[in-house]
Amino acid sequence: MASVSAQTSEKAQNFMKIMTTMMEIIEEVAPLIPEGKYIDLMKNIKKAYDIQNEEEEEEYIEGQAEEPQPQPQTNRYTLTQAINEIVALDPVFQQIQRQSKAKVMKDRQVLTKAQKLKAGWSVCPKCDSVVLDLREHQKYTYKCSDIYDAKHLTKSTGELDNTSYVETIIKINKVQLERKHKN
């Protein structure tokens, strides 16, 4: 099961409580609400789910070309069920629901470089970064090789600013790659 920060978990749980409470209140007063307004309420609840993830889906609310026709009172529960099913299938709602149930991550302590070294971490001889697994770092971290190349370039040129050299090297590498892909 995925884990989330305590803040994200609390926010998701609060959102779910608010939405559940709103749905319960609306169901209590549903007989007093005109059908068109009831549908508008349900659509706006859907919109609230979308906004929660900063992805407004205006076409869902405004895409209806004609005003919904009033239906008999007996269809209200069916309409509520349909809207609940639509909302339950919504990926934003599902994500918030998972976040509200996810295990809360423990706060991680940020170690200083000195604490890391004391705990057995190593200094990378190529890029001077303090790393836990030197072999993994050098194998998978492009930044390490970039810094290593920059250090050697600085040593070779005797200049601290090697921007023009780096840009030229990048252009040369690009041309080499393009020629390699043509063949």
Detailed description of the structure:
There is one protein chain. The chain is mainly α and 183 residues long. The chain has 2 domains: 3-104; 113-182, no CATH class. Helix content is 66%, strand content 4%. The protein is built from 9 helices and 4 strands; from the N terminus they run βαααααβαββααα. The protein has helices spanning 6-29, 35-52, 58-62, 76-89, 91-101, 113-118, 134-140, 142-157, 163-182; strands at residues 3-4, 103-104, 122-123, 130-131. The chain has a two-stranded parallel sheet. A hairpin with a 6-residue loop joins strand 3 and strand 4 (130-131). The longest helix is centred in the first third of the chain and has 24 residues, at 6-29. The two termini are 47 Å apart. The model is unreliable at 54-76 (pLDDT under 50).
Strand order of the largest sheet: 1-2
Low-confidence stretches: 54-76
Q: Summarize the helix and strand pattern as letters.
A: EHHHHHEHEEHHH
Percent strand: under 5%
Number of domains: 2
Q: Helical proportion?
A: 55-70%
Number of helices: 9
Question: Total strand count, please?
Answer: 4
* N-end to C-end Cα span: 47 Å
Structural class: mainly alpha
What is the oligomeric state here?
single chain
Radius of gyration: 29 Å
Largest sheet, in brief, is:
2 strands, parallel
Shape descriptor reads: elongated
Set down the secondary structure blueprint:
Layout: E1 3-4, H1 6-29, H2 35-52, H3 58-62, H4 76-89, H5 91-101, E2 103-104, H6 113-118, E3 122-123, E4 130-131, H7 134-140, H8 142-157, H9 163-182
Parallel strand pairs: 1-2
Antiparallel strand pairs: 3-4
Helix pairs in contact: 1-2, 1-5, 2-4
